[in-house]
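User: Design a sequence. Structure:
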């Protein structure tokens, strides 16, 4: 059955390059495996399925992403046992789960408070009163927050399907609003670059905790990296594990 096309999908043309760059970055998955509670797992904003693949040998896993292209990429890579769903994390109804993970900044793509609250309401319902929700976000970089603009610079270089690919990133910031606009350009063999424009919100630890509390969760634990470090000034991640308020 053909999959519905995602409206304005910044990942549509860069799936293979995204996969090549991030496939080996699995420190987060090791942490999720060590804290797993068992039962079925839902991964929201699963992209090409990196985290799902790393956890699928031990439990039933469903991966949901709004990008048709990312889910197609995930399906092609497998494993077959994972259920892949094209859908929006603000509006899903896939039955109950024992645990939900929103990895690698996917929650930061939600555009406003209404979308974030809608996502958390869906998570609360899917967890049916128990089971953890883990959200992994990039932490604001205090050293850069005064710069409204960081010009284009090299962010990654690698091979994709035998071709040399360079990714650059240009950043526009609205520090007071906590918003970022990232313009990633992929240069492949001298051709005109493919642009992928990403809009993200950066959360402070307090903002994230209040938001979870206002939407039926409490924060059980928070970390500043993927290996159990504390949230502190200068940490580069904001990782929280929240539970439904009983
Ligand atoms: C930075 S990628 C992370 C992908 C994957 N979690 C990983 O670790 O490689 C962010 C993903 O979030 C997805 N996304 C953004 N907004 C979404 C939404 N409202 N519902 C579902 N997925 C969404 C994007 O399509 C993209 O695949």
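Assistant: Done.
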């Amino acid at each position: 059955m053909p999959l519905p096309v995602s409206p304005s999908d910044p990942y549509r043309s860069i799936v293979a390059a995204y996969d090549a760059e991030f496939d080996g970055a699995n420190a987060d998955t090791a942490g999720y495996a060590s804290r797993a509670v068992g039962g079925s797992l839902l991964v929201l904003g699963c992209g090409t399925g990196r985290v799902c693949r790393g956890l699928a040998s031990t439990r039933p896993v469903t991966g949901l992403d709004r990008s048709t292209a990312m889910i197609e990429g995930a399906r092609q890579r497998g494993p077959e046992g994972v259920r892949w769903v094209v859908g929006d994390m603000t509006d899903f109804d896939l039955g109950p789960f024992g645990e939900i993970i929103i990895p690698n900044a996917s929650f930061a793509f939600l555009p406003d408070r209404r979308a974030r609250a809608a996502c958390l309401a869906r998570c609360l319902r899917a967890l049916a009163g128990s089971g953890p929700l883990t959200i992994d976000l990039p932490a604001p970089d205090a050293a850069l927050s005064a710069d409204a603009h960081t010009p284009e610079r090299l962010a990654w270089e690698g091979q994709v399907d035998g071709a040399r690919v360079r990714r650059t990133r240009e950043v526009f910031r609205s520090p007071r609003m906590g918003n970022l606009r990232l313009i990633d350009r992929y240069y492949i063999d001298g051709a005109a670059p493919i642009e992928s424009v990403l809009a993200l919100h950066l959360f402070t630890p307090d903002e994230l905790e209040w938001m979870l509390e206002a939407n039926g969760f409490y924060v059980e634990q928070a970390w500043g990296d993927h290996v159990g470090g504390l949230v502190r000034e200068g940490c580069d991640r904001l990782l929280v594990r929240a539970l439904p308020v009983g």
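The chain is about 25% helix and 35% strand. The domain at 149-201 is CATH 2.20.130 (S-adenosyl-L-methionine-dependent methyltransferases).
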